Amino acid sequence: MLRVLLIPFLALVTALALGALVMLLFGDDPILAYQGLTQGAFGSGRAWSTTIRKMIPFILTGLSVAVAFKAGLFNIGASGQFVMGSVFSVSIGIHFEGLPMIIHLPLAILFGMFGGMIWGAIPGLLKVTTGAHEVIVTIMLNYVAALFGGWTVYAGGTQGQTPGPLWDRTARAISETPDVLSSAQIPWIFGPPYRVHCGVFLALLAVGIIWWLIYKTTIGFEIRTVGQNAKAARYAGIRVERTVVLTMALAGGLAGLAGAIETLGLNHKFAPEFGGQVGFDGIIVALLGQTHPIGVVFASFLFGALDAGAAKMQFESGVAADIIQVIQALVLAFVAAPLIIKAIFRLRSKGEEDHASSLNTNWGGS
Amino acid sequence: MNTPVLEVQQISKFFPAVVANKDVNLKLQSGEILALLGENGAGKSTLMNIIYGLYQPSSGEILVRGKEVRIRSPHDAIGLGIGMVHQHFQLVPVMTVVENVMLGSESVRQGLLDRDMASQRVLDLSRDYQLEVDPCALVEDLPVGIQQRVEIIKALYRKAEILILDEPTAVLTPQEIEGLFEVMDLLRKQGKSIIFITHKLKEVLRIADRIAVLRQGELVGEVQPKEASETRLAAMMVGREVMLQVDKTDAKPGALILETHDLQAKNDLEETCLNQVNLNVHAGEIVGVAGVQGNGQTELVEVLTGLRPLEKGRIHIGGKDLTNATPRQITDQGGICHVPEDRHSFGMVTSYSVADNLVLNSYYQPPFVNGVMIQRESIEENAKSLIQKFDVRTPSAQTPVGSLSGGNQQKMIIAREISRPIQLMIAAQPTRGIDVGSIEFIHQQIVAKRDEGIAVLLVSSELDEIMALSDRIVVMYRGSIFGEVSSKDATRKKLGLLMAGVQPNSESIHESSH
Amino acid sequence: MSFWTRTARIAVGMVFLMLLMAILVEITPLGENLWMRVFFGISALNFTLRAAIPLVLGALSGILCERSGIINIGIEGMMLAGAFAGFVAKSSTNDWPLYLSLFFSVMVSLGVGGLMGLLHGTLSIRFRMDQIISGSVIIILAAGLSSYLYDRDAIAVGKFTTLPIPLLSEIPVIGPVLFNNPPITYLALMLVFVVHIAIFYTRWGLRTIAVGEHPRAADTEGINVNRLRYLNTMFSGMLAGLAGGYLVLEAVGQFQEGMTAGRGFISLAAMIFGNWTPFGALGAATLFGYTQALQNEFLMAGVTTIPRQFVSMLPYVVTIVAVSGLVGRVRPPAAIGKPYETEGGKS
């Protein structure tokens, strides 16, 4: 058990240390920076609430990627699924005035999940019917989703291009939707200035459901078996194609849920800038959490903290917040290749865990 | 006394978990064919890989023509005139014959590859040694027997004087094997020295000048073919008297369980691999499907178990039409079990525990499931009882199955398959790569099932296994059932001819003196 | 392995067709039709070439790496790193003679790209990291480092300008498009030929193919599989770095955060669509560049029937179609993605 925790912990520590080294190299003060970081993440009630608030999308996108990994699939499409979730949820959220919250809010959330599910199912379907590798397809769909989202709120161009269907007509030149109706907003736990919304509960609920699904049900057994050995799964009577599509749809749904929650709980509207980097972040969170739902929660907490502290760090120490991204890349590297950490710390290896995964079969087509 | 062209002294090779070779002493004289005999895992290939520079010995010396040498890589071995033809061909499918032969010893003109010169050399070699090949052919288009010629030419191209042939006959028909022996004879006459690795006793007696037997990494003894017999060699290989036959009573065939009509299917390359196959198996009989690998046996099993779609034809199991049913439907409604030919690829999930593997294809049925929830306790109990009953050696039911030995893995699979309520058992290559003790156990289990009234379809490329177990033997060739023989009338010669596509009656069969 | 693979034929055919149409549009009354001008005008062709160059270089980068058996989705990161490095080099040498400064900057792009390539190789080979994740690390690292180190006040002065080839650039239509280009563009087109000859006609190429298809076969003939893979990932990085250098030093002239904007991923698609061959990649890159050109032409011609975002989606959708094999089967190197272990064979 301890062994499982050791690698991620050492990965984090080493990444922070290397990050400090980089800062020193380029004339920044790492101590000041990390102080600012911790202050921004844990230094006050405001800080804590920011951390918790930022955790939510990480939990869900991390789950999304982790679930896909369990089936041996690589979901780099979390950001596209996130955007689709946002767009679908906001389209319900800004219409249907007069609907009671008990119907309006769940409807918007579910429709958002549905958008993400479609965006996840497409690469799944393509993979099982044509053999197209999901990495390329999901990356391409990310861009398509971003453009689609941009179109829905397009303010209209100077050459008479028509504005998008969800655009806020009162916003003049800004491309964004009107505010989400209050009946579709996720209620606060702590209102402004803390801004922690009930999406936290939804995220944790999702963690519980996924944990139960993956480890306690036959569906989870099938997903895991397909991920470990698809041929054996087929031999065992498992319908591999169906499992792949289902898993990708589930992963898409989780990322879509992330988008829906952010939109309905935090931003209360949709604009194209929301939700850029979630894709790769989800991958790092999933791997740091060892693709286990509980691990994902811890890893998300960490990422939420990093995200929350970044602005304060930049403010207090002048260190550009982008160094966080460098640290995240290092964390990913160390977590994905335990051999590096083992080499640095001279740990003895058990042998089996060090082999590359089977995620890259069927690269380029069947 | 002539200096041996190759000699190994006190060679040992230790891997972390196993001693592959221990204090092996061996001499190879110039112009002789030395057969290296041993079971799977006896250390033959390891020893040869050491000679070829793919492994480094843990201790010991190698002498070439009397001089001590260090062989650190295949490069060194090639430089010393040692060439190796591997059991699994080391050929790049998408490259041509010439390109494969050239690889690593490319001839270059003005910075670019000189394919023409290499082609010419290949043609010269193929003429001199009766190894006909087309230099421009793509290796992936060539049949297995021709691919092997390319492998031999590769060694000769690099001026090998010492040739190591690692299980060269595993994938050949008896007639192709004869062809290979003729080539070996020719090479011997031209002064080449050959080490010939095999576990097939009859071949060794046919072609070798001298026989060395390895068992569990050690040299057990050397024999002259004149003084040897199959029984004696088998005993040396295994260390105790081995039953080459399985004790069984005559079959009492009952109802027709498996009935197939005109099966036709395509393989992964979109070629027809099954053509008008009609095969029937009755309760209480073992039907053996013989044939060289690649003649449709694998696809036949896949079609019967729902892992491959049928183009034409019908399958009836126990009277039910299960044509193109899903694997699960076939298992449930047809009551069949499938011992797969490649347990590593799909017979089990190596990272799962023994317990989970034992319910791999029954996890969705009660008592292992309640609604959608998995019932851990039932799975554990099931595992305990099966492990005991089938003598699966494992530290615990939770141990990942990947750390078990091959024999125990296969026993686990057999345990899983035959402890279900079944009427038909399909066993494909059930004892491939397994120690002799486990082989005996598995054979006994198969016969026991037959005696209980189960219909058994046995697919194997080991003729000895087919002949020992089957009540009826069919031979597959080029995707069809080419011939059928009852076990009483079966001889290796007859089966060998059938396997090569020749009807025995149309050949004048010379009684050989072997 | 004939030159005239299916994709090479498509590539050359397409290019001929487009040039032919362009000539017709230029010379005949066909050019009076707005749509004809939009689709086949010289402006479209020029834009196509400019858009295709980084894709060609990126695809060549991918080919070198993947042919030897290492998946490379990090081209995007290597490109960005090369772009940023070239920018830093250029903006630090503004006081040098222009061409010296530019040449130096290109070298820096190549060097940094090569380093990123080596990093990818080291992570994948030495540390046996999953190659897709390794590529992801490269991407995030390049994005983070380039943003972190970017000095928004730095300015690069000057960029590569066109070098017309005497005589050839006078040919109507074809001349200005093909023979009046800046140096990296010429270099990129030449590299297509060079890489093609290298892969299919040299010793290095034969061994690379072997190592990517059946590394054990190569190993048994004494070829050092991993050393060749390291070499190839380094060259791969250099080509991707050159693509980044092109963006900064020839196309735009300045650096912008995230300026690669997905080109690295489209290069991957071009590589796959082109069946891992240089000329196939050229054809695919031209096709994708053409879709980007169309997007621009529609905008400039005031075509509003299709919302511009949907036109922008074209390259990505075409890529998905290509990868789904709806335009014929693609066949990656057989041993790609699996780390190679030497003393691992059994028996």
As a percent range, the share of helical residues of chain C equals 55-70%
Q: What is the strand arrangement across the widest sheet of chain C?
A: 1-2
The CATH topology of the largest domain in chain B is given as Rossmann fold
Q: What is the total domain count of chain B?
A: 3
How would the global form of chain C be characterised? globular
Estimate the global geometry of chain B from the Cα principal axes: globular
Strand order of the largest sheet of chain B: 6-9-10-3-11-12
Determine the CATH topology of chain C.
ABC transporter involved in vitamin B12 uptake, BtuC
Number of helices of chain B: 17
Multimeric status of the protein: heterotrimer
Structure description:
The complex is a heterotrimer of chains A (366), B (514) and C (347). Chain A is mostly helical. Chain A has helices spanning 2-25, 30-42, 45-70, 78-93, 101-130, 134-152, 199-216, 218-228, 230-235, 240-267, 278-288, 293-317, 323-336, 338-345; strands spanning 188-190, 196-197. The model of chain A is unreliable at 351-358 (pLDDT under 50). Chain B is an alpha/beta fold and 514 residues long. Chain B has three domains: 6-238, Rossmann fold, CATH 3.40.50; 244-335 and 421-514, 3-Layer(aba) Sandwich (Rossmann fold), CATH 3.40.50.300; 352-419, no CATH class. The radius of gyration of chain B is 25 Å and the shape is globular. Residues 506-514 of chain B have low confidence and may be disordered. Chain C is mainly α and 347 residues long. Chain C has a single domain, classed as ABC transporter involved in vitamin B12 uptake, BtuC. Helix content of chain C is 69%, strand content 1%. Chain C has a two-stranded antiparallel ribbon with strand order 1-2. In chain C, helix 3 (42-67) runs parallel beside helix 8. In chain C, 57% of the residues are buried. At the A-C interface, helix 6, helix 11, helix 13 and helix 14 of A face helix 5, helix 6, helix 12 and helix 14 of C.
Keywords:
heterotrimer, A: 366 residues, mainly alpha, 14 helices, 1% strand, B: 514 residues, alpha/beta, Rossmann fold, 6-stranded mixed β-sheet, 17 helices, globular, disordered C terminus, cell membrane (chain A), ABC_transp_permease (chain A), transmembrane transporter activity (chain A), transmembrane (chain A), membrane (chain A)
